């Protein structure tokens, strides 16, 4: 897909990976519709993107809210133009013991991480098909490929994004619209993982990590080449994922041996102590 002059919606664009994705797209001449709840930070990102020479709009949006998503699509088209690309990046994560997690928290996480990408994709897909051009990138996680303890709701949402992408690729394989899913490992320099590191919880080197700029570069590569599913991990973890797919019965033991279980148990303890909206 030719990127220069295209228009992209990037959700969760006010911080973290979303900012890096916006920069990479802008560097390739893509006009941007930046969506997030954090208006002040979003305006700063918009100013940076305009400085890179593309058109950009900053639109306050709670992706979990149906009406807010509708406003996002309407304003995106009226202020920038027809939507060619959607990067479903907005997401929330929490580490917690499943049976003690509040129902509202479980539902909210699924609304943001899975239902919102599904519905936003559904909203823009007819226009993409009509214009003969389009691509959707879902930002999932390594947790979308394995069962991570103390992350049941997060894993559920990311497995859902992987399944959604695979299904749409199969259903629309003869159409001009492409679908990709990107699965980073622990993303350094941004996000919840950094907060855990500040609290003394750091993943062993062999579990893999990802630089946000690399994730952004992979997103652009997916759009250009219609890549289906891409891991962004250093060191590579696909052999481990393949092993656990073939032999799922060993997964609990592997999680313990590799240190995932202990790491996320400690992360859950940190999250339990955290002041809401910290």
Low-confidence stretches: none
Order of helices and strands: EHEHEHEHEHEEHEHEHHH
Q: Helix/strand-derived class?
A: alpha/beta
Q: CA-to-CA gap between the ends?
A: 40 Å
The CATH homologous superfamily: NAD(P)-binding Rossmann-like Domain
Q: How does the major sheet shape up? A: 7 strands, parallel
Q: Whole-number radius of gyration? A: 18 Å
Shape, per Cα inertia axes: globular
Percent range for β-strand residues: 15-25%
Helix content: 40-55%
Which class in CATH terms? Alpha Beta
Average pLDDT, rounded to a whole number, is 93
Tally of helical runs: 10
| Overall tally of domains | 1
Descriptive overview:
The chain has 278 residues and is an alpha/beta fold. It has one domain (7-273): NAD(P)-binding Rossmann-like Domain (Rossmann fold, 3-Layer(aba) Sandwich), CATH 3.40.50. Helix content is 50%, strand content 15%. The chain contains ten helices and nine strands. The chain has a seven-stranded parallel sheet with strand order 3-2-1-4-5-6-9, sandwiched between helices. A two-stranded parallel sheet has the order 7-8. β2 (31-36), α2 and β3 (56-60) form a beta-alpha-beta unit. α1 (17-27) crosses α7. It is globular, with a radius of gyration of 18 Å.
């Amino acid at each position: 897909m030719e990127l220069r002059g295209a228009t992209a919606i990037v959700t969760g664009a006010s911080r973290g990976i979303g900012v890096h994705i916006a920069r990479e797209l802008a560097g390739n001449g893509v006009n941007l519709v930046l969506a997030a709840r954090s208006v002040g930070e979003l305006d700063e990102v918009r100013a940076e993107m305009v400085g890179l020479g593309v058109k950009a709009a900053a639109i306050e949006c709670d992706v979990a809210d149906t009406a807010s998503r509708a406003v996002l699509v309407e304003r995106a088209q009226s202020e920038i133009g027809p939507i060619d690309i959607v990067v479903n990046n907005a997401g929330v994560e929490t580490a917690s013991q499943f049976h003690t997690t509040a129902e509202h928290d479980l539902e909210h996480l699924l609304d943001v991480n899975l239902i919102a990408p599904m519905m936003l994709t559904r909203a823009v897909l007819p226009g993409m098909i009509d214009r003969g051009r389009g691509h959707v990138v879902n930002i999932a996680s390594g947790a979308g490929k394995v069962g991570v303890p103390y992350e049941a709701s997060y894993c559920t949402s990311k497995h859902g994004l992987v399944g959604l992408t695979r299904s749409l690729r199969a259903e629309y394989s003869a159409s001009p619209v492409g679908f990709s899913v990107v699965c980073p490992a622990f993303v350094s320099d941004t996000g919840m993982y950094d907060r855990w590191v500040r609290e003394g919880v750091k993943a062993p080197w062999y579990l893999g990590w990802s630089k946000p700029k690399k994730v952004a570069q992979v997103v652009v590569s997916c759009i250009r080449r219609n890549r289906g599913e891409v891991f962004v991990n250093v060191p590579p973890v696909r052999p481990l994922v393949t092993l656990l797919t073939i032999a799922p019965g060993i997964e609990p033991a592997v999680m313990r041996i590799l240190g995932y279980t202990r790491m996320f148990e400690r992360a859950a303890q940190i999250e339990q102590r955290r002041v809401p909206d910290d």
